[in-house]
Specification:
alpha+beta, PH-domain like, 2 domains, 4-stranded antiparallel sheet, 3-stranded antiparallel sheet, about 50% helix, elongated
């Protein structure tokens, strides 16, 4: 149940592409494959006889717990992606994200120093990009991942123009 402090009323939130779920799943798979392999080493060493301690059940508990945590994150990824949104207002850009811990970031156009677009290999394959907003304060640097490339380019130009016009007014 969103509160007005976190989710200002009367805004039309634009969402990121559902294809971004694939990008997140690719990162999830790679990260968890490495993590589960790493925490499985004690179990492998115990089963092959290289180590006598810890007991087999204890050596198996760590990869089991890691696997359960990985499955929990897998379930959350689609909902996390659906929670990412942005809204353009007259004076600022709002970016929201989060399921349990919601966050809404307000970036005034006049505070933007530059707008950057990046895309990793999986994002490029899916036609997506990540828009990064840089301000004078490192705490307000923000990003909108999972944008279709055309929307990212449009938003970059729009935000750059709005930022320049607000800076000229200072």
């Amino acid at each position: 149940m969103p509160t007005e402090a976190i989710d200002p009323p009367g805004l039309t939130w634009l969402r990121v592409s559902p294809k971004y779920i694939t990008v997140r799943l690719a990162g999830w798979a790679l990260g968890n494959l490495l993590a589960v392999a790493l925490v499985s080493l004690p179990l492998i060493f115990v089963l092959t006889g290289w180590w006598r301690w810890p007991p087999v059940w204890l050596a198996a508990a760590l990869p089991g717990a890691m696997l359960l945590l990985a499955l929990w994150r897998l379930i959350l990824i689609p909902r996390q992606v659906r929670s990412i949104g942005y809204a353009e207002r007259d004076e600022d850009l709002l970016i929201r994200r989060g399921i349990f811990f919601q966050r809404t970031l307000v970036v005034p156009y006049g505070r933007m120093q530059y707008v950057d677009i990046g895309a990793g290999p999986v994002e490029r394959t899916l036609g997506l990009c990540t828009l990064k907003l840089h301000t004078a304060s490192p705490g307000t640097n923000a990003e909108i991942p999972g944008l279709p490339a055309a929307e990212g380019a449009r938003l970059r130009e729009q935000l750059s123009a709005r930022g320049e016009s607000r800076l000229a007014g200072l």
